[in-house]
Amino acid sequence: SKQNGKSKVTRFTSAMKSDFLLRTELSRDMHSALDQQQFQLFYQPIVDQQGQIVKAEALIRWRHPRLGFISPAEFIPIAERSGLIINIGEWVFKEACQHLQQLKQYFHPDFQISVNMSPVQLAEQSSIFQDWHSALDKKGLKGRDLVVEITEGVMMTSSDEIKQRLLSCRELGIELALDDFGTGYSSLAYIRQFEIDYLKIDRSFVDNLEKDGNAQLICEAMISIAHKLKIQVVAEGVEEPGQAQLLKRMGCDYFQGYMISKPIPIQDLLHMPNQLTMI
Ligand code: C2E
Ligand code: CA
Ligand code: CA
Ligand code: CA
């Protein structure tokens, strides 16, 4: 009826308005959040086929004094629009560097931290990889200690200049991972062109692995092509032993997900056993 239609419009408008206000508030508060140490870096362990923790992905958390925990999925896009992602990205990198020493000591000298890089960072910071490499060097760390995760969109839309920028991490030893693989306009040509080291199979494929034969075929194909291109594969969002079992049989190299651990503070990571019984 007409009445229902009207109330729907009203609800939609007020939802939009509060959404706008929330974004404005978050955007404003984010500026002081760094100084006030409201951000925290969590780590999600990544295991190899033997169940050994060999890497961890750094995932940012924001504890807002009034609104509580805010998901990065919510505030990263806002930070990208305001430009604050540059400061946040630098903070994430510095924090990860601080923790790298301890993690290498605790787990293994080859332990790597994986950080997410926004397309905005890559576009705005012309010498980001060189800068990061010299910061690592000053701490006695190597480029190889770091993996940078980018998404497909970065490769698809980038200018030649940014392509060169991405390729520059090769000679610095910094490894590249292609995040959320399979969700965008994946092109195998791009993967080859950028000399990606790791391909991260998106959670959506892993989720359906046990129920959906097509998801199995797709995972199998992705792993097989990746390996032919000498790219290692990380499965994201592994929650069930059955999923890990299937992926392992397909030759998947690394596993990440709630089955192994949720993202946790550094102190908790430094209490995890080196070796997990995987499957
Ligand atoms: P992402 O890079 O794809 O990170 C994986 C997300 O999946 C994380 O969400 C993680 O907590 C979640 N996850 C991991 N295992 C499982 C699982 O088994 N089941 C389920 N249901 N979820 C799982 P989170 O931490 O909320 O991060 C969301 C997104 O925010 C990240 O997606 C990434 O795109 C972005 N992000 C997080 N930290 C940073 C950062 O420091 N910089 C930038 N630029 N982006 C970040
Ligand atoms: Ca990621
Ligand atoms: Ca991902
Ligand atoms: Ca994602």
UniProtKB/TrEMBL annotation:
State the superkingdom.
Bacteria
Residue numbers of the full-length protein present here: 509 to 787 of 787
Q: Which organism is it from?
A: Terasakiispira papahanaumokuakeensis
Instruction: Indicate what this protein is called per its UniProt record.
Output: Diguanylate phosphodiesterase
Q: Which residues form the EAL domain?
A: 23-277
